[in-house]
Amino acid sequence: MAGDPRDEIVEHLPAMRAFALSLTRNSALADDMVQDSLVKAWTKIHTFEPGTNMRAWLFTILRNTYYSNRRKAGREVSDADGLMTEGLSEKPAHDGRLQLSDFRRAFAELNDEQREALVLVGASGFSYEEAADMCGVAVGTIKSRTNRARARLAQLMHLTEDEALEMTDSATMAVVAGNRSSAAG
Amino acid sequence: MAETRDNTKQAQVIDDNLKRVYQDMLNEEVPDRFTNLLAQLREQEQQEHGQGYAEAQNRDETS
């Protein structure tokens, strides 16, 4: 007899926070979202099928929470930290490299569905099929969302193949994670 | 059509960076707030139902 599957939830906390942060790009919102989702997961554990992917189940709850909040807010909450208006503190580009500010704007331009698909498939390691299940859409929809997300990023940043190779880790880090520190600080 | 050679390379660069970012976030320490919440939920349930999960499981399996 297996124990309480909820014992496993704690192992997924880092991933839940990472996913929530990817969706909201705001640490306060992300943590509130994780908190709400934990309560939901706890009380709805009977909807979890033992033996299936618990992380996928938790992520599904997270994204449902996010979209439900977004509907209530009546608008996209993704720029709540002022991503678009945040001061440009980075050094100007001097060698043709992507500017951090450009990348930030590009990332903010992705719609929630595209960003979500890209993070699930491109970063979190879910298969297209798993991501489709989690988002309640067809596999082809997830594929097209991730492709469009990548293409849109490339387009917005005028990212040619050569430039793509020069893209620095630090630029991307700051785009997705940077906002959090400014919110926490 | 959506996947030209350029797109593939760009996709790889974008994904590689996203993965590093994601890993960085995964490595972060989880605030006590969440582990405390889980402990609280369990405690609350045990007080209310006595048995917690086992009881809830039996109840749900009848449907």
TrEMBL record, chain A:
One of its GO terms (molecular function) is sigma factor activity. One of its GO terms (biological process) is DNA-templated transcription initiation. Residues 103-153 form the RNA polymerase sigma factor 70 region 4 type domain. InterPro entries: RNA_pol_sigma-70-like (IPR039425), RNA_pol_sigma-70_dom (IPR014284), RNA_pol_sigma70_r2 (IPR007627), RNA_pol_sigma70_r4_t2 (IPR013249), RNA_pol_sigma_r2 (IPR013325), RNA_pol_sigma_r3/r4-like (IPR013324), WH-like_DNA-bd_sf (IPR036388). Residues 11-75 form the RNA polymerase sigma-70 region domain. The keyword Disulfide bond does not apply. Gene3D superfamilies: 1.10.1740.10, Winged helix-like DNA-binding domain superfamily/Winged helix DNA-binding domain. It holds the Pfam family Sigma70_r4_2. Keywords: Sigma factor, Transcription, Transcription regulation. Belongs to the sigma-70 factor family. ECF subfamily. NCBIfam families: PRK12546.1 (NF009198), PRK12547.1 (NF009199), sigma70-ECF (TIGR02937). This is RNA polymerase sigma factor. It comes from Roseivivax halodurans JCM 10272.
From TrEMBL, chain B:
Residues 12-45 form the Anti-sigma factor NepR domain. It holds the Pfam family NepR. Residues 44-63 are annotated as: Disordered. This is Anti-sigma factor NepR domain-containing protein.
